[in-house]
Amino acid sequence: MAAALPLSGRVAIVTGASRGIGRAIATHLASLGAFLVLGYSSNSVAADQLASQLNSSSDQPPRAVSVRADVSDADAVKFLFDAAESAFGGRAHIFIACAGVLDDKYPTLAATTDEDWDRTFAVNTRGAFLCCREAANRLVRGGGGRIVCITSSSVVSLRPRHAAYVASKAAVEAMVKVLAKEMKGTGITANCVAPGPVATEMFFAGKSDEWVKRIVEECPLGRLGEVEDIAPVVGFLCTDGGEWVNGQVLRLGFRIPVICLTNHPSLCVFATAVHDQEEGFLELGSATHKQLRWLWLLTSAVIQGKWQWKCIDPMADTLPLSGRIAIITGTACGMGLGVAVHLASLGAFLVLGDCSDSPHLEQLVTKLNASIDLPPRAIALLVDIYVGVVKSLFDAVESTFGGRAHIIVTCAAICDYDYPFLAETSEEVWDHTLVVNARGSFLCC
Question: What Gene3D superfamilies does the entry give (predicted)?
Fold first, then answer.
């Protein structure tokens, strides 16, 4: 009698299953005995072909169904799980989030349009959230439950012209690590698999032969990855043998560069100075204001000297930011207000933006502009950084101070103080958080 397959009797949902890595994962999970719901967004022919291939054995009931679903739509995501239950008579055990998009124009961040940013986050980040939330609520509990999100080692390599893609995948990796903790006691694990460059249609789109060649030269094995290199790793995580792997990001086939700065003489002096100045190394969490100011001055000296030792006299006549203009968002209170006060003390002119009126902000502007012998040094603007009015901050700089800004510090952010688990997070809260914290920073940058 043949031994049971590792995933025999278990149901897996795979998004982005019509091609590329998602297709290979679905095929591999089927070889391990799983029933499959093949999620796809547009390529119905490829998805149906894969389902027919997996159902080719005439002496067994259907093992796979293809389901069209836009992962950025909550109702469509729910339908994937409904399809699993109706097709196979029970809840899904495994969820693989593989649907993703990449802007094959490869713009710099400065050239990225609002529409391309929003589309990337809608699929890669919002889609992963909706899928993970549904999985957290509906996967089988008590053992065998698995959530795996396919991210990217670009989160570490930080390739230029991939800003939106990298940001969208980095958000997913952070989210999954939190989710793994929230699923404690359910028997459901949550992990990410982050491949390096893999020879897929999405990878080659928009790249020249020379660009591909350069990427291949970076790969430790001297070749691009293949989808078959990725699927077995995901398969392992989905089996009982992968139960002890939880809250992890597995980076595959990618050399992570390590830059050691402490060999530079000036930074060796810096490290020694930090050690000798106080008893032991400074821990920022417990450092005094005096220690932090000393550390800031020393750090600034190293940076401003372009890695040459240079002392800054805090009592010097010329302040470090004299004549420079800074834009700061989220300045009504908290960290933003503190940053504004500090930059002002260093001599900067300030444009202070916030989405709400604040007496603290008004008091700061009044105080900075109190001297009748000097022109105004600060103005405050009421702005929502996520609704397309970021340009007004920069316009205000030029009209008020007669030149372009030198510095922007984005402190505007929100947090849901109900602190829900991911499984309980509403779409409205998720969307609002991403719009302010991620899209707002993108627009400002």
Answer: NAD(P)-binding Rossmann-like Domain
- Domain-ending residue, one of 252, 273, 291: 252
362-371: pLDDT as tens digits: 888 888 888 6
Alpha helices in 159-222 (DSSP H): 163-182, 201-204, 209-218
3-state secondary structure 385-405: CCCCCHHHHHHHHHHHHCCCC
Host H or E run for residue 252: strand 249-252
* Catalytic residue flag (residue 106): no
Q: How many CB atoms lie within 10 A of CB 178?
A: 13
- CA angle, 436 as apex, 439 and 125 as ends, to 5°? 55
Residue 43: name the closest of 6, 85, 15 by CA.
15
Residues in CB range of 161: below 8 A, 6 or more apart: 106, 107, 108
Q: How far apart are CA 63 and CA 56, in angstroms?
A: 9
Q: What is the value of pTM for the model shown? A: 0.80
Contact 357, 406 (CB under 8 A): no
Backbone angles phi, psi at 252, to 5 degrees: -110, 130
Do 173 and 194 contact (CB within 8 A), yes or no?
A: yes
pLDDT given at position 386: 62
Is 130 in the same domain as 263? no
Domain final residue pick, 316, 339, 363: 316
Across the range 108-125, mean pLDDT stands at 97
**From the candidates 40, 106, 165, 386, which is the catalytic residue?**
165
Residue 407 covered by a domain: yes
**In a 3-state reduction of DSSP, which class is residue 373?**
coil
Whether 277 maps to a domain, the answer reads yes
- Cα within 13 Å of Cα(246), Cβ side: 19
Q: Which of 169-173, 237-241, 282-286, 356-360 has the lowest mean pLDDT?
A: 282-286
Here the tokens at position 192 are 């990410």
